[in-house]
Specification:
355 residues, alpha/beta, 5,6-Dimethylbenzimidazole Phosphoribosyltransferase, Chain: A, domain 1, Rossmann fold, 2 domains, 7-stranded mixed β-sheet, 50% helix, binds alpha-ribazole-5'-phosphate, binds nicotinic acid, nicotinate-nucleotide-dimethylbenzimidazole phosphoribosyltransferase activity
């Protein structure tokens, strides 16, 4: 493991148990029946533990990182879409017309698109909808049906790029990170990562992605099963990522590790983020304390990933777009949970006729 990755992993601490206990006590004293704000209460405990203080600061500057990459496994016919769409969508993100632009605007979040390995001629710059930055490792992974998707060095480079993006956004004032992805074909490596890291059969975790017929689903499932078979039982997180992952998965895993190292909460999007979070968990188990599952997508592997992470999704709306859309939708819920601890009157003051 190289220096940036190992020092980032070393600085990830468990969330602060004392701050969690203080938030639990504070919640118990608010002007409501115990537990009446449900998951908002548990979220506020988590935010307190992440910040190491109660009440936690209310996140005011959410930032979406959309990690983009292309996939050699398209040669197998696992998706009906051509890889050009990855590049085309990155330009749409920059112009502001994509699903994530709309939902990020609704959440007051900035959008940064990171080229991790897009095949097209990606250029850096800022548009009306997003800032594009290049961390290109290579213009697309190798075909994971035939061998490792990337080398171990490339996987580390991509993880470190994700860490750098998280650090830069936090240095620029972001206090709530949101994961996003763009990469035609990326539900195939996502399924493979989930199968490999949870020990679940390929046919349980492989789904229809952007929408494929039964024959293509059978082919995709066999590609996933074959790739997972190559993974040695003692493989570490970087090995698994290199064998069957994608450059955007690596970027997201690094982004999550980078957020945790700086004690900033990170909202995970759909199945791509779920599979990347499993990689991050394998590398640094405490990282999960900093993760919030924004939603559960329609893709079957996402349920398995969230169960293995022990995360309960905030929303379940049958979304299956990716880009960070479901995570951005959940950002106001995360902000609201911190506001409750900060702004709600106590039962004691209400009973005394105050506030
Ligand atoms: C126009 C378009 C916009 C998208 N935005 C996100 N995805 C999502 O779908 C792709 C994964 O599905 P599969 O593995 O089936 O190819 C990824 O690019 C993901 O980000 C899109 C897909 C399309 C076609
Ligand atoms: O779970 C997701 O976010 C997802 C599902 C299908 C295609 N793209 C993304």
């Amino acid at each position: 493991m190289s220096e940036v990755l190992s020092s980032t992993v070393a600085s990830i601490q468990p969330i602060d148990a004392e701050a969690v206990a203080a938030a639990e006590a504070a919640q118990a004293g608010l002007a409501k029946p115990a537990g009446a704000l449900g998951v908002l209460e548990t979220l506020s405990l988590q935010l307190s533990g992440i910040a190491g203080t109660c009440p936690p600061p209310v996140p005011v500057k959410p930032a979406v990182g959309v990690f983009a990459g292309d996939h050699g496994v398209l040669a197998q016919g696992v998706t009906p879409w051509p890889s050009d769409i990855t590049f085309v969508m990155c330009n749409v993100f920059q112009a502001g017309g994509a699903g994530i632009n709309v939902l990020a605007r609704a959440a007051g979040a900035s959008v940064t698109v990171v080229d991790m390995g897009v095949a097209g001629p990606f250029t850096e710059g800022t548009g009306a909808g997003a800032t594009l930055v290049s961390k290109k490792v290579r213009p697309g992974t190798s075909d994971l049906a035939k061998g490792a998707a990337m080398s171990r060095d490339e996987a580390v480079q991509a993880l470190e790029a994700g860490i750098a993006v998280a650090q830069q956004l936090i240095d620029d004032g972001a206090d709530l990170l949101i994961t996003g992805d763009m990469g035609i074909g990326n539900t195939t490596p996502s399924a493979a990562l989930i199968a490999a890291l949870t020990g679940t059969p390929a046919d349980v975790v492989t789904g229809r992605g952007t929408g494929i017929d039964d024959d293509t689903l059978a082919l995709k499932t066999s590609v996933v099963a074959g790739a997972v078979e190559r993974i040695a039982p003692d493989a570490d997180g970087v090995d698994v990522l290199a064998e069957v992952g994608g450059f955007e998965h690596a970027g997201i895993a690094g982004f999550v590790l980078g957020a945790a190292a700086r004690r900033v909460p990170v909202i995970l999007d759909g199945v791509i983020a779920g599979s990347a979070a499993l990689v991050a968990q394998k590398i640094a188990p405490e990282v999960v304390g900093y993760c919030i599952a924004g939603h559960r997508s329609f893709e079957p592997g996402h349920r398995i990933a969230l169960e293995a992470l022990g995360l309960r999704p905030l929303l379940e709306l049958d979304l299956r777009l990716g880009e960070g859309t479901g995570a951005a939708l959940a950002a106001p819920i995360v902000q609201a949970s911190a506001r409750v601890l900060t702004e709600m009157a106590t039962l004691e003051s209400v009973m005394a006729g105050g506030e």
